């Protein structure tokens, strides 16, 4: 197929990219030969080459305007510009080679892993509604558990109220009580979670905890007889309260710290750029 | 082709490059000492750096920014920024580091005040202005040179900021493609493209006055 007819008048526009690259010395090989051929054979291309060279030559003689200001810094300028503590923090956050990003990623990862281990993962491993979900109830129940020093009388009282409270309190207590039923290991513990939902019953929490943690204690409490069972309940309450929420809280704190560092770094980089 | 750069693909020999001079090493050593003293809190040391480079920065920025007041602001901001961020300076050349800051300051300022009508190079509009006297002192030559400078400056003020910066850095300041790419933070191909397009734009703008350049 023959090349398109070459019009000298439109050559500069048609081949401008090639000619300007030739003028800049950016061509090599076949492109260079093609451009040189064009410049030699086409008047429009040759004129463009000469014009570009003339403009480039004049550019070097572009006048320099005299400086009209002294740019030295005054003491006030220096004081204003001197990096403050906040500025240094921003620079540290934004520094390209700083350890902020790996640190933030590490903290966030630890937080996520910690959260999974303390809450989500056990539940996922043993199925929905299993004993692993029980810790989720612990933070809410913890205050009640701490109120246990009501003594044996209180235990007897709650034990006597338990049957009456069971119908209304049962549904909310299901998450902690139900797992025992599902697992099939403590069928007798089923009524026990009910006292945990007794409205306003501070000591009832102890019974709830005990029922969830130890079916034997729950049975004893439901009969309202043994003094030692109260001690067991208190012990169970003490054990359950700090073991569950602290790792979760620490994981949340780690995750928040990691995310805060990442956000801070992004803001700092934006501010400094 | 009689173009001395026709085979260099944008790279220049040390002799061609405006900043590869014999005194550069001594200046670099002096700069390092002044930077260290500045970091210890010596403002006078930083002002010595300002004195050493304010003409360079001004001439560079004044060619990138058509409005003289804006150019002065950009240079001042560049020195402020250099002082503020001196701790992040890692070498090897304070001059190169400062130049990059000045170019960025000029381009940032122009982007911020984009399309604001300015009177480009008002000094050049003054008919009494003449270029610095050189070896050619023939009045006619001086007049033509001055007229050419005005036309070129006016055309430069019209083309895009990025194209103007690339052309000034390459044709006037003598940087090569790689240095311009590093200064402006774009790729080598982008630098070439900006220079090519900018030159074609200048030629189109100056089409009616090309006789002035051919003479």
Summarize this entry quickly.
The complex is a heterodimer of chains A (273) and B (215). By secondary structure, chain A is an all-alpha fold.
How is this structure best described in words?
The complex is a heterodimer of chains A (273) and B (215). By secondary structure, chain A is mainly alpha-helical. Helices cover 70% and strands 0% of the residues of chain A. Chain A has 13 helices and no strands. Chain A has helices spanning 11-14, 16-24, 29-41, 43-59, 75-81, 85-94, 100-126, 138-146, 151-183, 204-213, 215-223, 228-243, 245-272. Chain A is elongated, with a radius of gyration of 40 Å. The two termini of chain A are 54 Å apart. Chain B has two domains: 17-118, RNA polymerase sigma factor, region 2, helix turn helix motif (Rna Polymerase Sigma Factor, Chain: A, Orthogonal Bundle), CATH 1.10.1740.10; 120-215, Orthogonal Bundle (Arc Repressor Mutant, subunit A). Helices cover 66% and strands 0% of the residues of chain B. Chain B contains ten helices and no strands. Chain B has helices at 24-39, 43-64, 68-84, 94-112, 122-125, 139-158, 161-172, 177-184, 188-205, 210-214. In chain B, helix 1 packs across helix 2, helix 2 packs across helix 4 and helix 8 crosses helix 9. The longest helix of chain B is centred in the N-terminal third of the chain and has 22 residues, at 43-64. Chain B starts with 23 loop residues before the first helix and ends with a helix. Classes of the chains: A mainly alpha (273), B mainly alpha (215). At the A-B interface, helix 2, helix 4 and helix 5 of A face helix 2, helix 3, helix 6, helix 7 and helix 9 of B.
